[in-house]
Amino acid sequence: MNPAELPLAGIKVVDFTQVMMGPVATQVLGDYGADVIKVERPPSGDLSRTSFPNDPAGLQGPVFCSLNRNKRSIVLDLRKQEAKDAVLRLIDQADVVVNNFRAGVMERMGFSYEALAARNPRLIYAVGTGFGLVGPYAHKGGQDVLAQALSGVMHRRANADQPLAVLSTTFADYSAGMHMVQGVLLALLQRQRTGKGQRISVSLFDSMLAAQTQEAAAQMMRGREVNWGAMPLTGVFETADGALVMVGAFKADPLGDISAALELPELKDDARFAGHERQVANKPALQAIFAERFATQTTAYWLARLEQQDLLCAPVRQLAEALDDEQTHINGMILEAEGPTERVRVIGSPIHMEAAPVTIRIVPAGLGQHTDEVMRELGLSLEKVA
């Protein structure tokens, strides 16, 4: 479709972010039409360009490609005043500036919110941090795993006897990035009414607390722990050829339905498991019965039996299997484009707008690929840039 018809067409974003939290946010803005100009530092740019281990020389890193489509890359040495002047000229024309540096970095470079807002009162200044703009952790290096640990997410697991472990997906980075997108869009809407920009901020820590909103309310209001993964009729079970997950909830008589599915009619009448409270108290024994039974047949066999009873269930799969799933492709969740060195294949947008489908308009850019182009748009000569 015509890029000028996308929802954020005409919005200019100056993007100082790197790694994940910031780039995943600015990629969404770029996907929906914003002109995202990624400011990178010499000589290597965004850390994610080279974070994929043992990648062949000369290829774009898959991690970088996953977070940086639909952006233009410029390289400027911001230790030099001429480079700072060029960035300030760019920001004067911008709608949004985004950074996820540690507290104080933008200020030391001369790009504080106060300084930039004085030049451009309509500017929306988005900041992503680890733990907040002020407070005891404000200057602590922010990272996904640290936020998992400090927020309580890492401590909460289905069974207390399981070892503490790092979540294998960057849950905090992605969540905070999506919250940053929401903040930018809300600020743009408010600016339409007031004519004024503002500073917005998100943090990994806050996003992890927000993700536990139900659990936190139960803790603060009743002093009780809510753990959906620890429910007695829910669990992950190995089968004869794999594994499945079963959720025994949202039913009038879930244990009765499970008993029928597992062909264990005596289970629903077992006094040890009569009612939710006894099921919780005797969960180890109950789950041991489930585990022994599931191990006797294949995943497909048990899924058919569980679905016959209208019980929530699914196979436990590897990512490669999920990517090959027909539903993944029907949903348009794989984007592909020819890059300068190889074919780029990445996950698309989970937001499906019929009038604004997401495509790769700009393949993940080479380091500084658009520096000359952007400087010319600012009216700077190539000699001046050099």
Task: Provide an overview of this structure.
- This protein has helices at 21-31, 62-67, 81-92, 105-108, 113-119, 144-151, 171-194, 204-211, 213-222, 254-261, 276-281, 283-294, 299-308, 319-323, 326-330, 371-377, 382-385; strands at 12-15, 35-40, 71-75, 96-99, 124-129, 198-203, 234-238, 243-247, 312-315, 334-338, 343-347.
- By secondary structure, it is α/β, with parallel strands linked by helices.
- The protein folds into 2 domains: 3-212 and 325-385, 3-Layer(aba) Sandwich (Rossmann fold); 243-315, 2-Layer Sandwich (formyl-coa transferase, domain 3).
- Strands 3-2-1-4-5-6 form a 6-stranded parallel beta sheet, sandwiched between helices.
- Helix 7 (171-194) packs across helix 8 and helix 10 (254-261) packs across helix 13 (299-308).
- The chain is elongated.
- The two termini are 36 Å apart.
- The relative contact order is 0.13.
